[in-house]
Amino acid sequence: MFAIIDCNNFYVSCERVFNPQLWHKPVVVLSNNDGCFVARSNEVKQLGIPMGAPWFKWKEQVKQLKCQVLSSNYALYGDMSTRVMSTIYQLHDPEKTAVYSIDEAFLEFEDNLTPEETQQIGHHFKQTIEQNTGIPVSIGFARTKTLAKVANEIAKKDSRSSNHYQGIVSLVHSNPNELEKHLKSIEVRNIWGVGRANSQKLNEKGIRNAYQLSQWDSAIGRKHLSIQGSRIIQELNNIRCYNLDKDPITKKGISSTRSFGKAVTNIEELQEAMAMYSTIIGRKLRKSGQATSCIAVFARTSRHTQNHYHENASYHFETQTNYTPDILKAALHCLDKIYRPGVLFKKAGIFATGLVEDKPIRRSLFHKSTEEDEQKQKSIMQTMDNLNRRYGQETIHLARYGFKQNWRMKNEHRSPRYTTVWNEILKV
Fold first, then answer.
1. In this predicted model, what pLDDT tens digit does every residue of 64-101 receive, in sequence order?
2. Cα dihedral: 38, 43, 45, 51 (round 10)
């Protein structure tokens, strides 16, 4: 059977660990550039503020409701995620554990546990994770991954009201009547793998909840929702279609894009942005053990401007690379092609495609670098990555980065990066 461990309101919970004054108060976390709500505390959900709502439209109402507003702090969230997953690995066999997202992990167990043993394991995991990290979690057990997600959804909904289940729900030993009751409580849009577009299709056909979907013939599900729909229906009926899938899917592309905090017209500022994006692309490639064959650079104005401008250019490398200076050189070459003086650029980014394993890299016939040159480049990047990993990102960076960077995204409400930047460490 499976269990899924899901952190409750993860971004908000991370903020509360280091600022206990936020507990039991309405808290929202904003997206990049302080654009929209990407996380809400239970108190905010009860106030009726929707997920993804634009900050500028709700600004006055949020103030009236006395909500605490925070900019996203991904350095903190990433580090806290690592701590949660490390604790899970200590509690359970890593070979039977698969990290699903920044705040979720699937675990596989033998199917011979009694109801009492399942509850004991759930409480032990929950208490240990919360004690070690301060992050509250919900746990769902079932014989399929889709039903485990259903159980987890029930646990989270219950924690916002009666807390009858204390954050742990198991559907492994449920009788048909109990399972039907639970499935009827889950809206079809909240079923794992359905998605917004498919939920609208299902609603039009009178399918409103998970139980109604489970009664569909899997062949009909495949007709209307593709093979994914057929598998979801079978999984809702305790027929296992998905394995643990411990190994991550190899990435086919990597991107780094950002909206600017203000409109940018200066070529030098755009070059600084390219340096930042190139650094991120290079770091991601090296971390995944890959190299890129091609990059594409784009820059555009705001979609709301009268004379909307959106242009892109690409560069194909003779030899695949993950060396940041090479990526930046190519990005600047593309930027020269698409830059227009006087245009108010609002967003730009880089996409890396044609990814391959970084060793052995297939070299072009016209490749000029020697093996010694490549070893030096690899050593430089390794040193740079190690220093930034230890002392915080951007501790060491390319000179093209600049210093003022007035174009950077807005994060006026960001909390300190307590765990990753020395000069922002918590003071008591």
1. 888 999 999 988 999 999 999 999 999 999 999 999 99
2. -10
- Chain segment 2-44, per-residue pLDDT in tens: 999 999 999 999 999 999 999 999 999 998 878 889 999 988 8
Residues in a beta bridge with 107: 3, 97
- Cα–Cα distance for residue pair 278/331, rounded to 1 Å: 7
HSE-up (13 A, CA, CB side) for residue 237 = 12
- Strand pairing category for 104-108 and 97-101: antiparallel
Q: What whole-number distance in Å separates Cα of residue 40 and Cα of residue 10?
A: 9
d(CA 14, CA 369): 46
How far, rounded to the nearest angstrom, does the alpha carbon of residue 103 sit from its chain's CA centroid? 8
CA distance 90 to 86: 6
CB-count burial class (<10 Å; 0-12, 13-18, 19+) for 302: middle
For each of the domains in the chain, give its residue range(s) and CATH number, in order of start: 9-75 (3.40.1170.60), 82-236 (1.10.150.20), 254-401 (3.30.1490.100)
**Structure token digits, residue 207:** 């399918």
